[in-house]
């Protein structure tokens, strides 16, 4: 029977240690300049502990923050790498990544702003927004489920035009998902493991309503979706979809980080078309079955988070260390 423990309680009793592999399974390009405990040898050796304490405090006040931070990190890494470009605001007519339609429902930016402000007070100009986001996405779960190599620097560019063609869509079929992940040097194992993040959080009706009401343009329903579950969703999300309405991505388990997502996936209750797509390929379907076991899932999810966190990072003298995550620094 699925555990009903809350997110923080569940993660506090998981016996697995942090994953220390920094580029497992080939990893992702650009991660070579990162290393564990990068800030230990800087003028801010307490950086990671400070981010952890601030993040945990915020999640205790708002448990919905954990999936939000994880999603922001994911959206950041898939568009030109884990460089905090997703955090930049639009300036004038130069629309940033935030304004792209898939990013308009993201949340948690204020939490990152506050964490950055507190870190800047303690250590001005040392810790990047990209590292704060990567650390907070992990720390929101209450313990080190994976190790976060640090040393990222922040991009000075964020363009709405970079989002399309880089960010995997909830409407994607398996070949498209596989292609998108391969572009980031991530494999099918990473695809399935990272999809397990759908075990927490909520989704807006527009991300899946086509499966309920007009799957092939003929007023039909997606046959790969459990009919009873589909009727429940129709009651929550009548047509046309209300952009403000949300539903749990993992029914009755949206605040528990567990393997329930993979269980319901095999019951044809994956919310997105991209979830159902994981069962259309023999290799990915086998991984879905394997990740129903908690030990397998937590290990593989952690390893894939490390791989994703290495995607196209800026290190060394590239980019900058922003003072404010929403705006680039003035040129000297």
Overall average pLDDT: 91
Order of helices and strands: HHHHHHHEHHEHHHH
Q: What structural class do helix, strand and pairing data support?
A: mainly alpha
Strand order of the largest sheet: 1-2
Number of strands: 2
Account of the 3D structure:
Removal of H(2)O(2), oxidation of toxic reductants, biosynthesis and degradation of lignin, suberization, auxin catabolism, response to environmental stresses such as wounding, pathogen attack and oxidative stress. It is found in: Secreted. Its EC number is 1.11.1.7. By secondary structure, this protein is mainly α. It contains 13 helices and 2 strands. The chain has a two-stranded antiparallel ribbon with strand order 1-2. It is globular, with a radius of gyration of 19 Å.
Task: Give a brief rundown of this model.
Its EC number is 1.11.1.7. The chain has 332 residues and is mainly α.
Give me the secondary-structure topology.
Elements: H1 7-12, H2 47-61, H3 65-78, H4 109-122, H5 129-139, H6 174-183, H7 188-195, E1 202-204, H8 209-213, H9 227-236, E2 246-248, H10 260-265, H11 273-277, H12 282-290, H13 294-309
Antiparallel strand pairs: 1-2
